[in-house]
Specification:
Elements: H1 5-12, H2 18-33, E1 37-49, E2 70-82, E3 91-99, H3 101-106, E4 117-128, E5 134-142, H4 162-166, E6 170-179, E7 184-191, E8 212-220, E9 232-242, E10 251-263, E11 269-281, E12 296-308, E13 313-324, E14 337-348, E15 354-365, E16 383-394
Antiparallel strand pairs: 1-2, 1-16, 2-3, 3-4, 4-5, 5-6, 6-7, 7-8, 8-9, 9-10, 10-11, 11-12, 12-13, 13-14, 14-15, 15-16
Length: 395
């Protein structure tokens, strides 16, 4: 317990007593914490990668050999959140902590040493009374672009898309968000880098002053537009330095995103579409293992469909096409290859607070064989098939 000099003087004079000081301090702490909420989830899975030899798995985010053919603890998420209130100069904070194997894959550890603990997000929120209120995040926050979320219960599928995989992840910086009206929301920010590593600054050949810039806007169809009400269209761009590229080099990169969720005349049916474009460019950092730095582009196009068949049963589909001309996906046999991916997921919420899914996924390449094999360097298949069960408890 830390007390100021005036309080200590009052205690010495006998005007206040130690028990009253303890109660006062406790009341202050409880008041400060009274508006903080605790939430999170435990994410588990079991999956079977069909076929013999799974050395070369499809290189989508949070997948890989470590989850193939067995039971998995994916991640434990613990979130502390104090949202802003409605006052003009409101403040709050958000801290999102990860435990488990996915924490290592997240790659935010500032030490550069992977571990089963990571800070997913941690930022302070501030409001300035400009117009309708300009809200700021300062700290570590998710990127402003993308159709899918890092919070797995919010996604329609268990596995992630390639579009999600090539997008930026977390940024350490400052982000401003302004709600123009009920239809338009704008965000813009500046960060250290495109890479997820917390506090990662520029390094040769980039100066520490080299920064990443981002902007995004979302249009939401108004409530008086009939069955289209609630549909959204989002566009965004992130440009800067990335020290976490797939082949170990540092590079400049630009990510462009366009995505939409569409309501339909069938209330239970929602459609979605996304386009991700990644351009590694003007790279002068030479990697001796590959003979040069990353340069090239990757396009990822995806379509989504979600049908709420009953109160408890939902069916989710995703189809994706990827034109990959860079090392962005980090697998040599995927470079200069086209990838097709189809995922079907059935979600049935039988238990309270539990999300349960069964998923089938098919990945296909139409050029060099990229999957399977008994050693990492000798893939033997054009196709990869997966059957998975995903069980998540939310609290």
């Amino acid at each position: 317990m830390k007390l100021n000099r005036w309080t200590l003087a009052l205690a010495a004079a006998g005007i206040v007593t130690a028990p009253s000081l303890l109660r006062a301090q406790t009341n202050t702490i409880m008041t400060a914490l009274s508006s903080t909420t605790l939430s999170g989830y435990v994410d588990t899975s079991a999956q079977w990668n069909l076929g013999t030899g799974n050395a070369n798995n499809p290189p989508y985010a949070f997948g890989g050999a470590g989850k193939a053919d067995g039971f998995n603890l994916n991640v434990v998420d613990l979130t502390l959140d104090k949202p802003e209130d409605e006052t003009p100069w409101a403040a709050g904070y958000h801290a999102d902590l990860w435990f488990g194997p996915d924490a290592s894959a997240l790659g935010t550890q500032s030490t550069g040493i992977p571990g089963d603990f990571a800070i997913h997000q941690a930022y302070v929120t501030l409001r300035t009374p400009i117009g309708n209120g300009l809200d700021w995040k300062m700290g570590v926050f998710d990127t402003v672009i993308g159709y899918e979320s890092f919070t797995s219960p919010n996604n329609p599928n268990y596995t992630h898309s390639y579009g999600f995989t090539i997008e930026p992840t977390q940024h350490t910086g400052l982000l401003g968000t302004y709600i123009v009206n009920d239809e338009f929301t704008l965000s813009a920010g500046i960060a250290n880098s495109v890479g997820s590593t917390i506090n990662l600054k520029g390094s040769p050949p980039f100066a520490e002053s080299y920064k990443t810039y981002m902007a995004a806007g979302t249009y939401t169809v108004s409530t008086n537009a009939g069955w289209l009400s609630g549909s959204t269209l989002t566009a965004g761009v992130v440009n800067g330095f990335n020290g976490n590229n797939g082949n170990g080099t540092a590079a400049k990169q630009t990510s462009v995103y366009l995505g939409s969720t569409i309501s339909t005349p069938i209330t239970a049916l929602k459609l979605g579409a996304s386009m991700d474009f990644l351009d590694h460019h003007n790279n002068t950092d030479v990697n001796t293992a590959t003979g040069g730095g990353i340069n090239g582009t990757t396009w990822a196009w995806a379509l989504y469909a979600s049908f709420q068949a009953t109160e408890k049963l939902a069916l989710n589909l995703r189809g994706e096409y990827v034109d990959n001309r860079s090392d962005a996906l980090g697998a040599a046999n995927i470079v200069d290859n086209n990838i097709y991916e189809f995922t079907a997921t059935a979600q049935y919420d039988l238990w309270k607070n539990v999300l349960s899914r069964i998923e089938f996924r098919w990945d296909h390449v139409d050029q060099t064989q990229a999957f399977g094999g008994t050693t990492a360097g000798t893939p033997s298949r054009d196709n990869a098939f997966l059957i998975a069960a995903n069980v998540i408890y939310k609290f």
